[in-house]
Each structure stands twice: as structure tokens, then as C-alpha cells.
Amino acid sequence: MKEIKIETTLYMYESIDELPRDINSLMQKAIEARKQAYAPYSGFHVGAALLLDNGVVVTGNNQENASYPSGLCAERTAIYYAGSKYPQAKMLQLAISAGGENNPTHEPVPPCGACRQSIAEYEIKQKTSIEIYFMGTSGTVARSNSLQNLLPFIFDKSVL
Which ranges in the chain belong to alpha helices (H)? Predict the structure, then answer.
């Protein structure tokens, strides 16, 4: 047996106010998208804003359904729209804000597993990392320079 040690690096900002101006603006778009989420069942609202290399910002929010598995997360809503509408554009930065409608979250909320896999797919497709910023409804903001920090053993086409 061999032991493998995995290390990851995240950068933590105490608040949105510490972010560089352009990232603060992107996060503000994610916050606005979060406020428009359709989450009548969980009450957990998520917003995402995705900056493309053509300067376009695509936003998304979670869309729930009474048949839970039929809903879609904010991150994938934005990513799939960008992939469909701007297939040649590279995804540069993704900002995420998440939290309960009646229970604010002050710690960073990372993307779920399905969203991590979708982000991984596009990092592989475009052969460049996507910088990911994530937060709750307020408080600390985390930054990852790549999805690889959040999902070190990705499932990709090499295993098919």
C-alpha cells in the first residue's frame, strides 16, 4: 500500500469588501442572481455569475422542482447557458453566493459535487483553469484558482 497526500490551497477574504473591484462586481451579480432563485422547497438560494473571456457575464440561480432531482443548481445554469450561447468563449471566473432564505450563511458555500464535475468538464475542454470565488449570504469569501483544488480526482474522458 502507498499513501498519497493531497494538499489544496484556498485564499480567504474576510468579506466581499476585500475582493478586487472586478471580482467584487462579479460577486454582486451572483448576489443579485441569488435573490432571484426559485427555491420554494428548500428555501436555500444560490446565485452564480460567470465571466467569459469575451467580457460577457452570464448569471444563473438555482431552480427547484417538486420532483427534487429535476431541479438545477445556479452554477450549472450559468455554465450550461454560457456553453450553449458562447461555445467558443473561455470561462475565466465564477462567483457564487448561497444561503438560506431564513437562515443566512456567513461561511463560504462551495459548489456541490455535480457542479464541481461540470466545472471540471469545462476546465478540461478549454485547457485552462476557472477561478472560483464562493461565499454564503455574507461574511468570508473563499477563492480557488482551479476546480482541481476542490475536486482533486476528477472523472474525465480519460477513464471512459
Answer: 21-35, 74-85, 113-126
